[in-house]
């Protein structure tokens, strides 16, 4: 996971972080990230010098045109993190190592190899019947709701929003939903992506890999109508290890971002009177709420990252070969250049929440995520129509993360339903 390979090089001499670099940490990211992004843009322009954990320098790309430019020019800003000029300064226990340490997955491939690996995923996902997925998600949602419907209260983040996409994703990949090891895989996925105090994410990630390796072996011997089998049968002839790595990427991308999308949408529906009135009265739809969340509270706030292939310019900044660029997806979505009146509308889908360019979420992954999220939200509202927050809106807290935008909990109340 931490191999720096042949691209590794020492940090350029005489190139310390700019004196005005901003630490990507603090309560501002938890409470009011949009205000912080506006302040960074005013002070630094569309590309800001920042410090990652341990004061490691990087660039935060805030502007919509600049993020679009970076993601469309892989020849200048590539995905293979072994190019990073800061590797000599990275300790072995660096917190962000799981996100930037090179792995042999589709996430870090480039050029023809990326097109080969991404093409396999695209074809495998394209074989998913969206109506069947919606039916499966509703069945999963109904089962989860039945587990707490009689109590009149629930914590939707842990009991519902995380579980629906996780279970749907592993079932989509060919694991039986009712098997005990499927539930263990779902639990380990949550721990590896969103560890709570006392969890061991490294051990959980290892168990995920082991279980998916067994799944790949099973599907080699007995293929079925699932994503894993289609990846194995693709003419590109991926190795078992490549399929395992790319399955982890597919399931992880389906799980945590979609879980936060579900929960952030439920929060909007329960706290914004436009939707509180509209969902029951027909003014505004769940689909509009889902889209607005992608603009204003996108689950993936910032993405690390891209690495400069050579010295270049971006947003008036001199970017040196090997520099790390963090894609500020949330900041770009609210860039005043695309919303000059200060009002961010949700009437179109030109947001960057699924990134952009060759390394964006492969088609049809965003459509499948939409099926999962929309089905989860609509099923909950259908089953529990008088759902309300159990706390005041300002008592809801966000996870202290600059990378993902998600609530720590979403407690609700409703009339108990006798099963």
TrEMBL record:
InterPro entries (UniProt xref): Cyt_P450_B (IPR002397), Cyt_P450_sf (IPR036396)
CDD domains noted in UniProt? CYP_unk
Name the domain of life: Bacteria
Query: What does the record list as coiled-coil region(s)?
Result: none
Q: Which family does it belong to?
A: Belongs to the cytochrome P450 family.
Protein name per Swiss-Prot or TrEMBL: Cytochrome P450
**Natural source organism:** Streptomyces viridosporus T7A
Task: Specify the taxonomic lineage.
Answer: Bacteria, Bacillati, Actinomycetota, Actinomycetes, Kitasatosporales
């Amino acid at each position: 996971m931490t191999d720096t390979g042949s691209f590794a090089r020492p940090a350029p001499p005489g190139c310390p972080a700019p004196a005005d670099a901003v630490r990507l940490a603090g309560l501002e990211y938890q409470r009011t990230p949009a205000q912080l992004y506006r302040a960074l843009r005013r002070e630094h322009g569309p590309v800001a010098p920042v410090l990652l954990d341990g004061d490691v320098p990087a660039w935060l790309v805030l502007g919509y045109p600049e993020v679009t430019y970076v993601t469309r020019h892989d020849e200048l800003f590539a995905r293979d993190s072994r190019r990073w000029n800061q590797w000599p300064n990275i300790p072995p226990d660096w917190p962000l190592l799981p996100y930037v340490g090179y792995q042999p997955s589709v996430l870090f491939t480039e050029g023809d190899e990326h097109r080969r690996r991404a093409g396999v995923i695209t074809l495998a996902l394209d074989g998913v019947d969206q109506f069947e997925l919606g039916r499966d998600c509703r069945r999963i949602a109904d089962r989860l709701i039945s587990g707490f419907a009689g109590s009149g209260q629930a914590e939707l983040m842990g009991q519902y929003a995380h579980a629906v996409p996780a279970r749907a994703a592993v079932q989509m990949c060919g694991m039986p939903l009712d098997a005990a090891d499927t539930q263990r895989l779902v639990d380990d996925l949550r721990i590896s992506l969103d560890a709570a105090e006392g969890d061991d994410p490294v051990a959980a990630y290892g168990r995920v890999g082991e279980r998916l390796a067994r799944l790949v072996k099973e599907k080699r011997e007995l293929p079925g109508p699932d994503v894993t089998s289609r990846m194995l049968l693709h003419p590109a002839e991926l190795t078992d290890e490549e399929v395992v790595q790319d399955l982890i990427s597919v399931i992880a991308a389906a799980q945590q971002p979609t879980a936060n999308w579900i929960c952030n949408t439920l929060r909007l529906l329960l706290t914004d009177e436009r939707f509180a009135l509209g969902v029951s009265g027909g003014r505004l739809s769940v689909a509009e709420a889902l889209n607005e969340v992608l603009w204003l509270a996108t689950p993936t706030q910032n993405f690390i990252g891209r690495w400069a292939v050579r010295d270049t310019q971006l947003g008036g900044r001199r970017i040196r070969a090997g520099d790390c660029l963090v894609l500020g997806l949330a900041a770009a979505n609210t860039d005043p250049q695309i919303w000059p009146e200060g009002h961010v509308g949700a009437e179109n889908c030109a947001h960057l929440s699924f990134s952009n360019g060759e390394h964006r979420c492969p088609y049809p992954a965003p459509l499948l995520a939409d099926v999962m999220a929309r089905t989860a939200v609509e099923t909950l509202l259908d089953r529990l129509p008088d759902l309300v927050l159990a706390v005041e809106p300002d008592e809801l807290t966000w996870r202290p993360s600059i990378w993902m935008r998600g609530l720590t909990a979403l407690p609700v109340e409703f009339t108990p339903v006798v099963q």
